[in-house]
Amino acid sequence: MLSKLILRGSQLVRTATHPSEFFGGLRLRDFPKLVAIKRDATRRERLHTAPDLTYLFWESTLRCNLRCAHCGSSCETRSPRPDLTTEQVIEIVDSIAADFEARRIFVSITGGEPLLRKDLDQVVERMTVHGMRSCIVSNGTLLTEERARRLVDAGMRTVTISVDGLKAEHEAVRGAGTYERTLAALGNAGRAGMTTVEAITCVRPANLGDLAEIERTVFDAGANLWRVITIDKMGRAGQDADEASAAAQMDADLWLDPPQINELLDYVASRRDAGAPVRFSCGGFLGVDRELTVRPESGQCFAGLAIASILHDGSVSACPSLPRSWIQGSALETRFSTIWRERFHRFRDVSWRRSGRCHDCSWFDVCLGGGLHERAVQPDDFCWLDRQGK
Ligand SMILES: C[S@@+](CC[C@H](N)C(=O)[O-])C[C@H]1O[C@@H](n2cnc3c(N)ncnc32)[C@H](O)[C@@H]1O
Ligand code: SF4
Ligand code: SF4
After folding, report:
1. pLDDT band at 239, cuts 50/70/90?
2. DSSP 286-327
3. Which atom of ligand 1 is nearest to the CA of 231?
4. Of the candidates 347, 356, 381, 373, which has an alpha carbon nearest to the alpha carbon of residue 283?
């Protein structure tokens, strides 16, 4: 008798099945993957009732020395609101260290451009003293070897540098004169003592054909990891686009259609198969065939479960890419741990997610309705099965 594994509620169960149904559904060789995917989902399920903070984003500023065409945070030279002062940041960091197991927390310092903050070393040092690990996500243009060494001295060991293509395509979105400085940052970081030097690339139609050469270039320049992502419809790549026609142009320039998404995923899978330190990242479920081929773990969004964010003005949310309407309070007014404990219900409530596109999806128990920010910023385009044309 043939049997197949299906998800019933949160359980993976074996049922008898007709051969045609069996082969029309999952392939036999996918079963071990299905078990691994379910195991990852079970781990996340526990976090809904017992959240466990292990990853913190700090949006250190909304100021930036660049003005990228696709910037999801719509950053420019000036910020709409002032940044937190050094004292305010340190007070929040100290409160988190007092209320959580600091050694288990990894802080990703993003922006805006974090290297515009003059107090960065001081804040990183404070995090390190508490046992937190940290990294910056940076456009790299200001990361000299000397600057990187100061961060290493403060305890940082990881940097992520955005490289959005070969020179012409990188500069088409990031501005003229940025490419060489960004590539140099990868080498500077390694020489200064950073142990993880990650390049990250936003893939769009114009740079999709260059993946192999971008990969060679970033590794030659000093990266030891390469992450590829797609562009979300937010900030200047979404609702902040100046007008409807500009938004339509953004779509054409920045958005990958299903064949292009499949080309991207095929590329990443083939490189991982060959042992290259390359990964794809998104917050949703890609289907059993794709899962675990483009990244080591299955697609899960941990926003509000294991992840929280302190935004540039002290507001607290689950993920920095969520719209401001999702903010649950300010760490300047309420202790961060109180917001995490008492005001994060919306992120932990599963029921509202089982609606619309996800209402009767048989993968809901492992996907949980996609990545939270993707669902919020592009409500018609968040499902990664749809995005592959499945
Ligand atoms: C907002 S930036 C801040 C850090 C730094 N300024 C940089 O560019 O790396 C963080 C990351 O988000 C990426 N990003 C920017 N706009 C995006 C969008 N609309 N969708 C997805 N990722 C985006 C950037 O390429 C970068 O890798
Ligand atoms: S993507 Fe980064 S570098 Fe570009 S404008 Fe936004 S914050 Fe600045
Ligand atoms: S329909 Fe919803 S639950 Fe199903 S795979 Fe897509 S995003 Fe995930």
Report:
1. confident
2. --TTTTTTSSSS-----BTTTEEEE-TTSBEES-TTS-GGG-
3. 20
4. 373
